[in-house]
Amino acid sequence: MPSLTTTAIAAVVVLCAAFALVFFYAPNDADQGFVQKIFYVHVPVAICALLGFVLAAIHAIRHLRTGDAIHDLRAYVSIHMGVIFGTAALITGAIWARAAWGKWWVWEEPTLVSFLIVYLLYATYYPLRYAIEDRERQARYASVFAITAGAFVPLNFMAVRLAETLVHPRVFATSEGGLPGSMLFTFLVALAGMALLFVALMRFEIAAKMTRGQISRLRRALDREAPAAPASRIAPAAPSEGVG
Amino acid sequence: MAAFRTILAKDLRIELRTLQSLPAMVLFAVSTFVVFRFGLDRTSLEGSLAAGVLLVTVLFAGLLAINRLFVAERDEGGFDAMRLAPIDLSALFAAKVVALFVYLVVLEAVALPVFAAFFLDDIAGLVPLIGILALVDLGLAATGAVVSTVGAHSRARDLLTPLILLPLLVPLMIAAAGAAEPLLAAGGPEYDEVAKWAGTLALYDLTFLLVGYAVYDFLVED
Lengths: 244, 222
Hints:
The complex is a heterodimer.
Chain A: H1 4-24, H2 39-66, H3 69-101, H4 110-123, H5 125-131, H6 135-167, H7 181-222
Chain B: H1 2-18, H2 22-39, H3 47-68, H4 71-75, H5 78-84, H6 90-119, H7 126-152, H8 157-183, H9 194-220
Helix pairs in contact in B: 1-6, 2-3, 2-6, 3-6, 3-7, 3-8, 6-7, 7-8, 7-9, 8-9
């Protein structure tokens, strides 16, 4: 696997290329004009957030299977990044909705509504971790949450979509099926850049957590008398061996 | 199976003797109807409004029972006993799901007639609605039992359970409202969409029963 620095540089390069393509290569949308370009941020960010949640469920299953704390740490970071990217997706979605449809929030758009519900569910991940004191149990419950929520995501998208097609025909198609080639290419580059950014940020946070864990362990070893600096109360403890 | 029966019988016996949850749920539901009557300023309801009032009331009354589902286990050391006992812990999950399901059915046995008397002009849709409510109860019981176990082991107990539960229940509510709305429609019940939504409800129930069964051991083990 490439190092964190390589990933970060790749993310920056691809994202810069994506933005260059967005502004200088991709054509303006015939209906919406310039504002449609937020699509190249909004949709990749949302896809990355959802993939982060899926990734968290996979790590959570591995954590419950093996009991290895590194998987819990990865699941935590995946959800953490997913929530951050999800916030960005909701904000850019609201901006786009305001510009395109005149309202900050549109209940008729099922993807946006589903996304909000998923986001609200994953936002409870933090109070859940915070409320459980025993470290091992906290990790186990967080994994159970990640798996349950992972099963919930597709179900939720299905239910919301069913509800909307019932009441309204789908007016605002967001699938990239009808995209011309130049837009699709730009979109794919933007998606790749955003995914690289997601991975780079994840690995950065994992590395930071591991380092912090190591420092506090070293400090405790150095000075047994002094009270150890308290680690973050909700973040999982870094496992004792193997630094990424 | 024996463990399942024993735990279920224990829970139902405790509820029958102490009457801690059920009367509170029923009273809460009836009061909520009254609040809705004035909050909406309506004396009769139909369609989506009727479905919403009924389902939201059942959901919040159900939350009372879900919050209390593991109080005995938490306070009296029941969890430790379960861990020590040579039983499959999914028996505990199954028993709690069924107990919660029974509470909700009893609640609705009272709340539904009261709701009909308060708000409904046409009660022809109530019979199929009972089937829909049974599916809702099962889903509520499955997710409720899992989340309540999480809540029972946390510091923020009564706060955490509804916080996690509400977003989880949104798909259930979407499907339930989708099914209940045509059944309570103004001009008599319509059945076109009901099967689709009943299918969605059944899928939700199945998913969360399976997820609960799969993860429950990890919630109780120490």
